[in-house]
Amino acid sequence: MSRYHSYINSTKEILSIYKGDEPLSSFLKKCFSANKKFGSKDRKQISNLCYCFFRLGKVVMNTSIEEKILTGLFLCSNDSNETLVALKPEWSEKCKLPLDEKLLIINSSLLIPEIFPWKDELSESIDHENFCRSFLIQPDLFLRLRPAKEKIVIQKLKQAGIVFKMISETCLALPNSSKIDEVVELDREAVIQDHNSQRTAEFIKSEILNLKSEISVWDCCAGSGGKSIMAFDIDPKIKLTVSDTRESILANLKKRFNNAGIRDYKSLIVDLSKNKSEIKKLKPEIIIVDVPCSGSGTWSRTPEQLYFFLERKIEDYSALQKRIVSNAIAQLQPGGSFVYITCSVFKKENEEVAMYIKENFHLQLKQLEVLKGYDKRADSMFVAVFEKPL
Prior knowledge:
The chain is of the alpha/beta class and 390 residues long.
């Protein structure tokens, strides 16, 4: 029994000093590295308790921190948990029940819609209650199988005894805890990429196929290069340019590109939130702009971000996005395509920026869609595709 009280006390201590200014996963690694008394099982239990606490989001409970931690553990567990067995045995045996029945059992003032309180800020097609419920579920790990590598990856996973589900011919869903980096050659054979992030390929592909065989593509907020690798897999003949704000970001991208077999591309350090004259020579036919955003569509993976998020930041991100798209659009060739992407569920980052693009730059809006992931154990994203008149 004392071991489980120790888990709770260690979790409370971590929660008291963690301020959300770095990913919880990184913070926990530092804590455990500095405190060698925790074995691997201890670290796993304490980490899980921390995440379960944050999965309750903005819910305010008139109870102790310990009770909130255990409540989160109960609502997020589908099987009996040894911490609950020790400290809340009456809950442990009910872990397999549906969520609504669990809520009746705990007899709490907890209301699911309180988890994510910004209902009025959501894109209209998002179901608020179902979105809130998704925070109590760990999303899946998704793999995108690269061309001609599909059979190889599937065979390797089967031989390693790793459970997976085929979402499509190129998309696999696996339990989030799956250890695949020693089984699959990441970036060469398969890319770790969320289901809806993979779905953005549908929009990018339609634009590539609409243009001539050799086209120039600028991934202007490239990050680690996931969208660029996807565009290359659609058409390896594209003339690819990638840019981001820091050299360290592009250094990581270069490593991934080497693994992915992408050698012929241009790389630029550009801060598109500022007007940069050196990018005027690009004139690409397709611009992919996966803008910095709140990341609210991914918070079921990183629930600590939900817990610490401040509503005023929505407007800050929207203003940043408008500055970025304004500078990027200026480089687009007539007849070219502009693909705007976020991993946000906030309308000010999504539909409102799309309308800003349409109204201020006179681009034709071809497609617009919220890619909902909360019913698929995946992230939610937004895509809008525009065309610049000739």
